[in-house]
Design a protein that fits this description.
Blueprint: E1 2-7, H1 9-26, E2 34-40, H2 44-56, E3 61-70, E4 81-85, E5 95-103, H3 107-117, E6 123-131, E7 144-148, E8 154-155, E9 171-175
Parallel strand pairs: 2-3, 2-5, 5-6, 6-7
Antiparallel strand pairs: 1-9, 3-4, 8-9
The structure holds inosinic acid and magnesium ion (MG).
Length: 177
């Protein structure tokens, strides 16, 4: 097994600040904090850094979490997505940003976006750190995107291989060897 640096810690940090600025610019200032909805577990570091970068821009955030699991089985088109942990709060009339580590087939985020839209948020956007455009099966638009990467398995900065490497501070390609 070996890890090959794909995106350095410094580049992740720089891009995260830019994404915070994009989020801030897209949401008018109101009396309600921006609701950052992190998808567990992969988004934790990204959500944490993003939320503090928003504070530096004078924007307050509410942190919420959901956990989902998707089965990438043979029935490709069905793409079942199971909610393992739902939100604790109402999102009605709120500015919501779904924060995800990576957009791969697109199943998870397209399902989540449909499910959450029904709850009538004021705005609903997706901010994903990474995207693998070649792996897309379901079309889904991410309003904010950190980096497009090749269709390779990556770990670090929250992303795991069998629950390992989440605390690697940069993004690396995982080589089985
Ligand atoms: P999608 O529904 O296929 O877009 O699934 C996205 C989810 O698959 C992400 O939230 C990750 O948990 C996982 N995933 C996809 N690609 C990778 C990868 O390269 N490394 C680690 N996890 C990945
Ligand atoms: Mg994930």
């Amino acid at each position: 097994m070996s890890l090959e640096v794909l995106i350095s810690e410094a580049d992740v940090a720089r891009r995260t600040k830019e994404l915070a600025a994009e989020i801030s610019a897209s949401i008018p200032v109101s009396d309600q904090p921006i609701m950052l909805l992190g998808i567990l577990k992969g988004s934790v570091h990204f959500l944490s850094d993003l939320s503090r970068a928003l504070w530096a821009l004078d924007r307050e955030c509410q942190l919420e979490f959901m956990q989902v699991s998707s089965w990438h089985g043979e029935m490709a088109s069905s793409g079942i997505v199971q909610i393992k942990k739902d939100l604790d709060s109402s999102i009605e009339d709120r500015d919501v940003v779904i924060v995800e580590d990576i957009l791969d087939t697109g199943r998870t985020l397209s399902h989540l976006k449909e499910l959450l839209a029904v709850r009538r948020p004021r705005s609903l956007q997706i901010c994903t750190l990474l995207s693998k455009p070649e792996a897309r099966i379901v079309e889904v638009e991410a309003e904010m995107l950190g980096f497009e990467i090749p269709d390779k398995f990556v770990v670090g900065y929250g992303l795991d291989y069998d629950e390992r490497y989440r605390n690697l501070p940069y993004i690396a390609v995982y080589h089985q060897d």
